[in-house]
Structure formats: structure tokens, C-alpha cells
């Protein structure tokens, strides 16, 4: 009797992992998806918050892909464990703060644990040799297989023919001949394959799925680490880097200025963790103050707060300062008149 | 019929889905879960997750920047 073999596919929400899963499903393998949430994934976050993005569809791409494929998707929160990957990447960072190689090793390792616990046979990823500079090079792909402990239980259907046969191929669970030999940065073969399967709509492939590959985000994260004096972080710390305008007038404090109503509402939720301020004599944004500002610093921050509100040209603006414990006081300030120094903007 | 409430306010995508998924794993088929969120993305994501996993969305409602989804747990978790 034939045993129904089962594979778990790492589903990122992009096209490659979708095609990899489909390739193996077509060979009669039972496939389920797994998606790891690191805290840095670019999904609905920002447009869930910002008012101007309300009309945009806010679907989670990995869920959408799973639904297109007709497979179950397990979303796993790895926020805590991922800290170690990001803070201490054995293989270093990519162009920005993206520790791609360590990240891949970590995720494949988690998938390996998952298949052991759930009675699955092997792991599928959408990796393609030569597609990404760090984690998908000919010499680093074996590193992922080895250091994750998955070894030859890790099948990359899109480029399998360029790699040594894995256990699922050797055992005949999948037919190596029906796997692919994609390599390099060109995405043409993937596009063609997508067209063949009738996948007309898919999220922007490559690079766009993770805030750590973003230059501006990475700069804000570097600043956060410098200000804290260590690289450890909480989810809220890194979430807040995606919201508002970040202004650091001095090393020991910064302002997070809501850019619009949706962000203001989101920042409201943090008022017990930060000193906050907002103009009361004029309309203006909610501002959180992170760090250890002195009374004088708060004065400066209030001036900046006033500058971002409708009282920016007024002689005097009332700014209410609310402490973490809810205690409130109002001060009168002259709005910061000049352009803020460029280096204050993060 | 048991009915539980999950407070997923202030959580952003995909955390409301993750919390829903983890909560439903502990529940029995036929039980109901009411998830309360503030991220509008849940109106797409939680029903999609339910469809994939065989649970039924009984009701969705929104108002005052809150989104409520009532789910009946299906047989196959
Ligand atoms: S882009 Fe982000 S999620 Fe993708 S491998 Fe690199 S660090 Fe990991």
C-alpha cells in the first residue's frame, strides 16, 4: 500500500514558495503551509494603521496564497526566538539589518521541529540558487540544509535539479524529473510557470516581505539600539518604528509624531508606556516621547509638537503633557520656528 | 454551547490570526469564539483562515474602530 507522504511548505506570501508548494502538490504529496511571524514581516501593519491606506486591500499574503493552493496554513509566532537571530547573526547581516542566512537556517530548523511533532515527512522551500545575494547562493544553500539540521529532508522544488538529490527524491516520493532547474535572478521561469497555473495575481516577489531589508527601517532600528545601549528589544519597540515620524533632537530622547489620525489612534494605545503630548489650543498630532528627557527637553519637544499642529504659526500654543501614570499638565510654548535639523529625522 | 471571547485589540496582522488559531486549537468542535480586534485587516484574514481550516464565520460586525468576528469551531482543527 502506498503511504500518503506529507510535506510542509514554508509560505512567505510571495510567488516562489507558492510555486514550490504547487510543484510538489502536483505529485500527489499532501502539503500544508507554515509561515513564521518574526515581528518584521511586511503585511497589513502599516496600512492597517494609516487612514490613507484604509481603502487598500489588507489581505495577509501567506493566507491568500494558502487559499489559492487550497492548503492549510499554520502561522507561528517566533517573535521571542527570532530576537537571537537578529541580535546575533552568526553569518552577519545583508545589505541592511537583514540576517537572511541565519533567518533561513532558523526557519528551516523550526519547520524541521514542526514536521517531527506533526508526523510530516519533509520540508519544501521556494529557494532558487543565485536569486538572493546572501541566503540563496550555491555555496550557502547547503549551509541552510546542514545548519538547520534538516539535511536532505529539505527539498527546493524550483532548483532541485541543480542540487544533489534529497531523501524525498531518492525514495521516489517525488519524481526528480518533474522538479525544476531554475537559477539566477531572472524571474521569467517563475512568471511563466505562474501563467501556466493560472496564478494571475500574486504579491510582489523578492525582497518586499521584510522590514529588515528596508534602509530607512534599518536606520531607525540601529538608532534604537544605540539609544538603548543594547540590541535587545520588545515587539512594541520594533512595531513603533513603523509608525509616525521619528525625531531625535538628542541621544537620550526622541519624539514619535503621529502623521495622521489613524497613527494617532494607534499611538494612543501606548500612552501608559510613554510620556505623551498634544496641543490643546490648536489641532495637532499626538506625540510620544521615548527616552529620558529633562524638563528642558520636554519644553523643546513641546515646541516641536506645536510646530506639527495647526498652531505652527501662532505666537503661543498650549501643549498638554501626560505622564505615564496619567498625570497631566499644560505648558505654553512658542512653536519651534526653524526647520528641524536634518540629522534629527530618523 | 460554550462561547468564549478573545481580546485581540491593538494587535496587528497577523497576530490576531495567530491568537485566534491558538485559541481555537484548545476549543471543541461546535464551540463559538468571538474575536474583538482593532486592525481592520482581520475582516479579510480571519475569514480566510477559517475557510482554509474548516471553521465557520457566523457573524462579522464593525463600529467605532472595532471589528468583531464570531466563529463556530469546525470539526477538523
Ligand atoms: S528578508 Fe527578512 S524574512 Fe526574508 S530571509 Fe531575510 S531576514 Fe528573513
Automatic annotation (TrEMBL), chain B:
It comes from the Bacteria. This is Putative redox protein, regulator of disulfide bond formation. InterPro entries: TusA-like, TusA-like_sf. Residues 5-72 form the UPF0033 domain. It holds the Pfam family TusA. Belongs to the sulfur carrier protein TusA family. It comes from Methylomicrobium album BG8.
